């Protein structure tokens, strides 16, 4: 009998609110760079590819993150080593039960009902990868027998930001154990007790099971959700020409209950076992976790970027662009980005999400986007704005193109700083070279593209009575955004 294929299913999304202001809703935690220059998604892709028996990955993400995800895949692998990567795109988040169930339908339809799903959140840091690969093989052996395996992490410290799993008796002659119960994020005193008790493990949110097993258990314990996901899958109509892209329809997906896979299935299933992993695991869920990735000086201070610390102890400074100076403080985090600054006590790192909640309630853009916004064609950065005007720096990748579009309320003046711009304005096409400019009146259809092999950099000056990003009518777009 052939050995079932292992298909890594990478869940990539979420706001990462505890890592604000670096992580934003429009640029969440999987895409932020660590001190070594790699993103968490990049590391997860490499880790997944190392255990994918068919060299095929499934990335489940939000439609808005599709293009940045593709860029990460291209950065993670050379062209010759790149695994086949498929994308399952959600119109909006419905929690992990919906995402994993939809992925199971994809695996059944595109690989096999017996294929093993290795579910990996995109924002974990696991080392060494060789040790994790051995953990996966141990889990796969159990999953081939019809078990659902969750990976547990032996706690190394009291942690109030993680859920826990209480273990029961060993399962057979394996390292796995029977799951006694799931425990919500505990108080500090309770977490200290759990750290001393070998029966308690951190709940990593990683799983290994056959796709058919997951769907059967979901139907058994949460039939309404199972039926809603089935209807969503049946309504899937769009794939790209290569079959590498599947979009879940919004109307049907909106009917799926918003609930975690733990609540929906894992807490109720008698097919679940927990495998303590030998690899080192960190979900990089707070600024303390990020700080630990940088070396500490003799006073316990850690720095990323350009900073001066005098008479300071146990501080973390993240300087994005400008120099940061601290004097005579202790246990402080300073996280600086071009448009937002966080100053907080290190022991309050779990409460950063409360700041994001307030910003969201106020409608402040800094909860959602950075000053520099990533687009499929490149980036734009808002340099300055005021009453009736906005100034942007626009960078277009080689062969990239903005959509053919029109604005009702604003005109635009483009100055090419470097590279060459191919401009369409109404029925006229022309080139704008370095140190040249052009003017696009309001109401004119227009597009700019980069026909060259180096980045195109422009300064855009907008003027008008309304300068919101929603003042845009798209007529055509090479990235399918119309």
Question: What topology does this entry show?
Answer:
Layout (H helix, E strand, L loop, with lengths): L5 E7 L27 H10 L6 E7 L3 H11 L7 E7 L4 H16 L5 E6 L3 E3 L1 H15 L4 E6 L10 E7 L6 E7 L4 H9 L3 E11 H11 L1 H12 L10 E3 L2 H4 L7 H6 L5 E5 L3 E3 L4 H5 L10 E3 L2 E4 L5 E4 L4 E4 L4 E5 L4 E5 L6 H11 L9 E4 L2 E9 L2 E8 L7 E3 L3 E9 L2 E5 L2 E5 L4 E4 L5 E4 L6 E9 L8 E4 L6
Parallel strand pairs: 1-2, 1-4, 2-3, 3-10, 6-11, 13-15, 14-16, 15-17
Antiparallel strand pairs: 4-9, 5-12, 6-9, 7-8, 7-9, 8-11, 17-18, 19-20, 20-21, 21-28, 22-29, 23-26, 23-28, 24-25, 24-27
Explained architecture:
The protein has 482 residues and is an alpha/beta fold. The protein has three domains: 6-282, Spore Coat Polysaccharide Biosynthesis Protein SpsA, Chain A (Alpha-Beta Complex); 296-351, no CATH class; 372-476, Sandwich (Jelly Rolls). The protein is 23% helix and 33% strand. The chain has helices at 40-49, 66-76, 95-110, 129-143, 188-196, 211-221, 223-234, 250-253, 261-266, 287-291, 352-362, and strands at residues 6-12, 56-62, 84-90, 116-121, 125-127, 148-153, 164-170, 177-183, 200-210, 245-247, 272-276, 280-282, 302-304, 307-310, 316-319, 324-327, 332-336, 341-345, 372-375, 378-386, 389-396, 404-406, 410-418, 421-425, 428-432, 437-440, 446-449, 456-464, 473-476. The strands form seven sheets. Strands 19-20-21-28-23-26 form a six-stranded antiparallel beta sheet, with no helix packed on it. A five-stranded mixed β-barrel has the order 6-9-7-8-11. Helix 1 (40-49) links the parallel strand 1 (6-12) and strand 2.
